[in-house]
Structures are given as C-alpha cells and as structure tokens.
Design goal:
Layout lengths: L1 H17 L7 E2 L1 H8 L3 H13 L3 E3 L5 E3 L4 H25 L3 H22 L7 H19 L2 H10 L17 H23 L3 H38 L5
Antiparallel strand pairs: 1-3, 2-3
C-alpha cells in the first residue's frame, strides 16, 4: 500500500506543479482513482498530503481543489523562510546545542549521506519517501534549538505557502540527475550548518542557512519550469492547425 500511496502522491503533485491540473480544479476521487488505476484509499491519503504541502485546499462542503498560487509566491515565501531560519541558526549557535538536538541533527546528516550513496548506484533517483521527512526533521530541530516560539510560529505561517516548507520538496523522479545534484548540495549545506553550530559560529550559521534557502528557491523555480515545459508543448500542439 505504501508504494501505491507514494506513487499517487508523486503523480498528483506532478500534475499540479506542471499545470495539467489547473488552479481551481476540483479533485474528484472516483475520477482520479480510475485515471491512476489505484483504489480510493491512496487517493484520499494523497489528497490530504498535498493539502499539507499547500498544493490543495479543502472545500467548505467536501473534497479538495487545486490551490491558486504562482512561482513568484513560492519564491518569496522561501526567501522569508531563509531569513527566519538564518535567525534560528544564529540563535542556536549562540545558545549552544543540547545533547538531544545535536544527536537528531547528526542522525539526519548520516541518513542523508546514506540516501545519496544509494541514489548514486540507482540511476541517481533519490528515495523521496525518506529524504523529505528527514529534511523536515533537520530544519525542525534547528528551529527548536533556537528556543524562540514566536520565530517558530512565523515559520509555520510562511510554510503554508505551497512548496515553501522544508517538508515540501518537489522530488518526483521526473528529472533524477537534476534532483540528485540539488540534494547533493543540500546535504553539503546541512553538514556545513551543523559544523558552524557546533563551533558556535552564529554569523556563519545564519549566512549558510540564508544561502541554503536561496538555492532552494532557485531549485524549485527550475524544477517547476522544466515540469511545465512538456505540458506547454503538448498544449501548443493541441492548438496547432493542420496545414492546407
């Protein structure tokens, strides 16, 4: 069942980000089940997951529809997240890491290395089902280390923007080598941030987190643009008139 759920989430996410499911489109479980050849249970789970990512919104009556958003809105939200997480990194470095948080961050680093090693011999396809939650745990531990509830609240609000949160990476295997390179750099960023935190280098930790978010913003722009390009090409072909 888990593989069906992952498949369903990936396919629906791809359709939303590529524009094949337009803003405002209603997500009808029966139609989606037939289209993807899966039961309605993985469809329901996938719809709830995409709501958490901000790609869908729940209707007042029942069901979901595709949320209206632009790539610029995503970019702006990720920029703000970078500022807030930079502030969290500085605070965490200056406060010092507790043993529990230090262990959680180090465990994330270790898991990230293993996932990259496995991907390198598997066609550069990252195991998104493991990378995405691990990435979210790393960022969450960093924010927790700052000990600032107002900062955490502000980050939670910003992360409601589609694809802006640390747990909303658009990994779907469509562009494996490109995604692998993005994740490879993200892993390096995580390791550099942890080193700065352990050294108590607040300014460096802050700068690294802001740069990390800046790269994430640009990566999301490129991934979405490449995903939308084939859909735009198909649309143009559909509008083309046959020559006389």
């Amino acid at each position: 069942m888990s593989s069906q759920i992952d498949y369903t989430i990936d396919r629906l996410r791809q359709q939303v980000l590529s524009g094949r499911l337009a803003p405002g489109a209603r997500m009808v479980e029966l139609e989606l089940s037939a289209q993807l050849a899966v039961s309605r249970t993985p469809i329901r789970i996938a719809l709830a997951e995409l709501e958490k990512e901000g790609l869908l919104e729940r209707l007042p009556t029942r069901g979901f529809r595709v949320r209206q958003f632009t790539v610029d809105e995503i970019a702006d939200a990720v920029d703000v997240r970078g500022v807030l997480e930079g502030m969290a990194a500085r605070s965490a470095a200056e406060r010092g890491l507790g043993a529990g948080i230090k262990t959680r961050l180090q465990d994330c680093i270790t898991e990230g290395r293993l996932l990259l090693e496995k991907a390198e011999v598997a066609g550069h396809v990252i195991d998104a089902a493991r990378w995405v939650p691990m990435n979210a745990r790393f960022h969450a531990a960093l924010v927790e280390a700052a000990g600032n509830s107002t900062l955490a609240s502000a980050l939670a609000h910003v992360s409601k923007t589609p694809m802006a949160g640390a747990g909303a990476l658009s990994l779907n295997g469509v562009l494996p080598l490109l995604e692998y390179r993005f994740i490879q750099r993200a892993q390096t960023d995580h390791e550099d941030v942890l080193a700065a935190l352990l050294a108590g280098e607040g300014a460096r930790a802050e700068a690294l987190m802001r740069e990390h978010a800046h790269r994430s913003r640009n990566n999301k722009r490129e991934l979405i643009a490449r995903m939308q390009a084939p859909a735009a090409g198909k649309s143009a072909k559909g509008r083309a008139r046959p020559s006389a």
